[in-house]
Design a protein that fits this description.
CATH architecture of the largest domain: 3-Layer(aba) Sandwich
Helix content: 25-40%
Structural class: alpha/beta
Order of helices and strands: EHEHEEHEEHEHHHHHEHEEHEH
Shape: globular
Number of domains: 2
Largest sheet: 5 strands, parallel
CATH topology of the largest domain: Rossmann fold
CATH class of the largest domain: Alpha Beta
Length: about 250
């Protein structure tokens, strides 16, 4: 089994580790000229961004040659997974992949414009993450099938989400609105954790125009020096089971 993941603050990496198999970082795979994944089971673990999947995951599905009898998709989200499951099915099918199992797991949401981070972290027990994750892992290990239908209502929902929230959370130039304050020591960690190679650090921190809006740079900055004008909180988050070194290894 091969499990591919996209992670910014560790949630999806942790989920991928629990699912098991050979783990592959999608940002690292995308640096290859050719991506070929063959196995009895191949899956993707990625976050939900306003009902959408990360832009890089969409590109990965278009680029990768995946051959398997069991293709699974696990979305992580904090508030509402919206049309994420339907979106995963639709995008996969457009790229010749038939989804065998798709589900969502409620975890801590790191979307700073929408959430006060401490409140998100304080509700971990209510989300029953470990219990629900154990169920998902069991389903996948037993190769259970779970694929909801994608009808007219779901397709309309996907179009609406893509045209509204999708434009906001998938804005490639979003990082140019980030604020780097005087706490910055130019350590370069923001560049190392960025899955899109969107950041360079010399005398100053420079953001380019292909941001994934994952907020890895904001949440993993050791000096809490990177901010949004409209953030709800200065508190930052990383999954308790994942280290900064793990994030760097996944995305550098």
């Amino acid at each position: 089994m091969k499990t591919c993941y996209f992670t910014a603050t560790g949630n999806c990496l942790y989920v991928a580790e629990q699912i098991g198999g050979e783990l592959f970082s999608i940002p690292q795979l995308m640096k290859q000229d050719r991506i070929e994944l063959y196995d009895d089971a191949v899956g993707i673990v990625c976050p939900v961004y306003g009902g959408e999947m990360p832009k890089m995951v969409r590109r990965f599905l278009s680029k990768a040659l995946i051959k398997t009898n069991y293709f699974f998709f696990v979305n992580t989200y904090g508030m509402n997974d919206s049309v994420a499951k339907a979106n995963a099915i639709s995008v996969s099918e457009k790229n010749g992949l038939r989804v065998s199992y798709v589900t969502s797991l409620k975890m801590v949401d790191n979307y700073l414009p929408g959430f006060e981070m401490q409140q998100q972290m304080d509700t971990v027990a209510d989300k029953k993450i470990e219990e629900n994750l154990a169920r998902i892992c069991k389903d996948i290990s037993e190769r259970k099938r779970n694929v909801p239908s994608v009808g007219i209502v779901q397709k309309a929902g996907m179009a609406l989400v893509h045209g509204t929230m999708g434009k906001v959370v998938l804005n490639q130039n979003a990082a140019k609105k980030y604020i780097v304050n005087d706490s910055c020591i130019r350590c370069g960690i923001c560049a190392k954790v960025c899955p899109a190679d969107n950041i360079t650090v010399n005398d100053i921190v420079v953001f380019s125009d292909h941001c994934e809006n994952c907020y890895a740079c904001l949440h993993n900055c050791p000096k809490n020096a990177i901010h949004l004008k409209n953030e709800r909180s200065t508190v930052r988050f990383r999954n308790e089971h994942v280290t900064l070194k793990d994030i760097i290894s996944a995305n550098e």
